[in-house]
Amino acid sequence: MNYYTDNKDIAFQLQHPLMRKIVELKEKNFADKGKYPHAFLDVDDALDSYDKVLAILGEICGDILAPHAEAIDHEGPQVVDGRVKYATHTQQNHDALTQAGLYGMSLPREYDGLNFTMVPYVMAAEIVSRADAGFANIWGLQDCAETIHEFASKEIKEEFLPRINKGDTCSMDLTEPDAGSDLQAVMLKAEWNEQKGMWLLNGVKRFITNGDAEIKLVLARSEEGTTDARGLSYFIYAKEWGGVRVRRIENKLGIKGSPTAELVFTNAPAKLVGERKLGLIKYVMSLMNGARLGVGAQSVGLSEGAYREALKYAHERMQFGKTIVNFPAVYEMLAVIKAKLQASRALLYETARFVDLYKAYGLITEDRKLTPEERSEQKNYQKLADAFTPLLKLFASEYANQNAYDSLQIHGGSGFMKDYPIERMYRDARILTIYEGTSQLQVVAAIRAVTTGAYLNRIREYEKMPLRAEHEQLRKVLITMAEQYEKAVEMVTDKNDGEQFDFHARRLVEMAGHIVMGYLLLLDAQRSDSFEHSAAVYITRGKVWNDERFNFIANFVPDHLGAYSVMKETKAE
User: Fold this and answer.
1) I need a labelling partner for 83 at 20 to 30 A (CA). Which of 21, 67, 348, 350 fits?
2) Which domains does the chain have, with CATH numbers?
3) 163 membership: H or E segment, kind and range
4) What is the torsional sign of CA 515, 516, 517, 521?
5) Active site residues
6) Per-residue pLDDT tens over the stretch 289-345
């Protein structure tokens, strides 16, 4: 089975009209042509190459990764003499992808990468995640290479980036026992050692995904006497330098094949990435945005896998003389699962395109100054990427959980047993709303786009899109939803109560998200009839979901039924 060619929705996104512009910018008018043997000749050659490489990846995922997922979940990794030993099939997965040359997809050719844009790289992450969401964490941490490429010195790039394509794994070592979401509380110490000509790291990191990786990006406190973000710098560490021991692997609910480690740093040598004091403020923020895009892809991939398991079971399971897919209670659930899946995928690739465009302009500045028009475009796409990334992470991860839940429900009692993959997928989904910033933190990040009007402005742009006549009624529904959303924002902001605004923040963000995804599905339906049903289902449901949020906001009185006072009392306890 090929997990790319059997899913036309992914290839559909590869054919989006903006992809030609993205490729041209990324390839800098194909400056590498003739310089590297595999450099693209033109846009069509690039898109064809993306398609062929994704097909290779899809075959490996369908034939190797997916069949290994259950055994990996059962065996899991181990700690042996302070080192992580992968589950047997995890190592086989890693070797298969390394041999196929699929690591370093987005890196420039000068560092042995494929120079792919973010869109096909994100597609690859989705495909791997459908096969095994746990292994996707090991594969996806090559995102660290993006940070190295963007911010590290030329010497560090030349030393580390070619290693990615050869299969060296990565980790981002941020969290500590007393610094989870609050990363400015990180206290792992970095001291300059004149004799060794390197920094030495001392302390403990916890909940580190793929913690025994060959290449680490470590957030550490370089400025003595500081306690805030301004005292933190970013460092790169190579496993062969020694000084890091794996104390233990966490015993987790899900994604069991992905080793989550507690690490002890004892005079571990490291090199500074970029400038001192910008570790959290600049570099980690950039890395986290990339990681949130990655979790969005992981969530969509898991949603796809869960939906397929539910659909397959519903077509096979007989009850009362017919397959259960014929019962309204079941086929309604399947329709909603599919609508949420396709909505979150539409949001995933819209976000990836925004990221691609603003980053491509950034690469061009290495060779020349941007024109005023290009600068304006870059700024616009960066704002859109900043607004859409937390929206994507919030919705895709929440929908992955809802879809896994409902897919298991369709299996009935069988879904609760380990005989079916949905049980593993259900457990794997739970982490998605937690790591790389909880859903609550995504709301904190997204609410700015509510107050600045970024979401509403983009919604107004979607409103103007040309539609087929049969879709005009759905547009009217979305226009009504946008008017309702605008009124809800006004109601909350007019109260001039910061605490009440925070209380309603998630409702406002979710209202915006439902409208955005409704429009994205409607846009997709203009290019393919296969999205019409999901667009109708999602927009109809979205109207109901937004009515509920609007009514809560409109009828909310601080002391109504003690709701606000209870909230404050709970906070005080």
Assistant:
1) 67
2) 170-277 (2.40.110.10), 464-565 (1.20.120.470)
3) helix 154-165
4) positive
5) 436
6) 899 999 999 999 999 999 999 999 999 999 999 999 999 999 999 999 999 999 999
